[in-house]
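Hi all, long-time lurker, first post. I run a small reading group and we've been trying to get comfortable going from sequence to structure in the token notation. Rather than ask abstract questions, I figured I'd post a concrete chain and ask someone more experienced to write out its structure so we can walk through it together at our next meeting. Sequence below, copied exactly:
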Amino acid sequence: MFVTVGNHRELALSAIKEIQACDGGSTIVTTDAESFTCPHPAEMVRTALKLYAGFLSGREETHIPLPSILSPNALPEPQSLSGVCLDLTKEQIEITEVSAPVDAEGNIQIDATQARVLRTLSYNRDSERAAARKQAEEDALKKPQIGQTIPGKGVYLGVWKPKDRSGNSLGKTFAVYAAPEDLTDESGKKLVATFKDTAKRITALRNWHGHDGGDFANDAALYQGLTDGSAIGKWFIPTRDLLVGTDVGGNKVQANNLYASKDKGDFKGTFSRSSLALKEWYWSCTKGAADGSMVWNVRVWNGFTVCDSRDQHR
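-- Answer (accepted) --
Happy to help. Here is the structure in token form:
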């Protein structure tokens, strides 16, 4: 255990020889004859140290008065042990073995004639901050924001309540995640390929960013996979409504889509804005309304759509 004194120096428990009352608080005297003033009554400091000693007897969690031990200047008039406490857990402390003067019950005894080896702890502020960050991250995962990258899932795109080509709801609601990167060719550049070749690449994916690829040749096959569950947790070529928010007839049906989210979170800046390059385009798996051999594709950065042959390179 370390005691933080007024000048923010940390003292090991075994280095404390005596705690004396003085005007305005108490004086902590160390084994090397140094002394440090503390703006808290001597009895308060002794009691707080006994609480620490209670931890040493085997309890893994305990309440330690904040003003007495960890931050003597935190409160202007700390006159009571009650009220302000800090929960310490195993994740927030470091445990070591030292020799310290305590009695058989683990209480601090400055005038004890014999020292005893016992477990002591130090409060780790870095661990506290890390625990707070971890908790914040866990809370964020429960309610992700659009554009937020979720490890093991992808970039959160929002909630999807899919409808089939006839506009009939599948009666299901899904959280949808986009891949954190595009498929690439041998040179590492964004893949430009036909719909057929792109579908083959998707199907062949294994544990790509934590998921396998699904085998869905078109939107009808995908809707069937969503109905029977075979599409859950699989990468797939998105439907037109997930890319641009509209169905095969051009009706607005999906608020959460890549076009609407292109400037949000981790999506921002990932879609090129050149109107000439084929790499601007993304295939959807939505077949054309009149010709089933045609497939819709979308230029995400401006929402432009066009229905092309499956053999066209995009």
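A couple of things your group might point at:
The CA atoms of residues 53 and 114 lie 16 Å apart.
Residues 125-142 form the longest helix (18 residues).
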